[in-house]
What does this fold into?
Amino acid sequence: MEKTAHPQAWLRGLVSGFAVLMLLASSAGYAEDLSLPPPSRKGTLSVEEALSSRRTHRSFQGRALTLKQLSQILWAANGVTAVRPGRQLKTAPSAGATYPIDIYAVVGEGGVESMAPGVYHYRPESHSLRPVTSGDVRTQVAAACLRQMWMAPAPLLIVITGEYGRCSAKYGPRGVTYTQIEAGHVGQNVFLQAEALFLKAGIVGAFEREDLGKTLHIPAAHEPLLVMPVGYPG
Ligand SMILES: Cc1cc2nc3c(=O)[nH]c(=O)nc-3n(C[C@H](O)[C@H](O)[C@H](O)COP(=O)(O)O)c2cc1C
It folds into this structure.
């Protein structure tokens, strides 16, 4: 008797092969980038009001943020505001426009509407997020921050990192200081943008660098400089 594969079995094979390929792709870090909604350039709170109300917050509700709020915070932190020949200018100043800062978003379970928990790398040039690792790692991040567990309930942790080499290539040893100064500008942008969205932010500079880097799965050259929990005040 002639052997012919049943057409449904053939289709099932194709579908499961595709599923395996997708799984392999995501575990190899090839999950698709996530486009963020365009940031708004107008708000309802004045700079003076945001400056007056800014405080380091250490208590947060678990309430989810919207993708729009996340988009706005990332843009404020390190987003592109102008394009010049050969380079893009950003919300924070940068020594020699060397831009040594990278931002990672640690999203908790149910932390941002329609997003899976995980660590994401912000890509300013395309205003998008690239998945780095999946799963809710907020507790591990808080533990790496010398067990400052008050941070863990915040739906979003913004991690500001610096790659000294980008700035030191131009300025030598001063590049380290310049990178750290730039991280401070970025941090204040996050604070003020959170206020303008009627959210609150905290700031943490006390952490075990190696533990934090391992938890986040970030490149060794990306030195964590600040961690900023963001959310609704608890
Ligand atoms: C570089 C830096 C590191 C900080 N690290 C921490 C920290 O690890 N934990 C913490 O609770 N607050 C931290 N803070 C927040 C300060 O304690 C806070 O800014 C200060 O008490 C003034 O309060 P305010 O920010 O509410 O005005 C840090 C602030 C800065 C600028």
Remarks:
- The mean pLDDT is 92.
- The two ends are 72 Å apart (CA to CA).
- Residues 174-196 form the longest helix (23 residues).
- The pocket of flavin mononucleotide is lined by residues 55-56, 58, 148, 203-206 (CB under 6 Å).
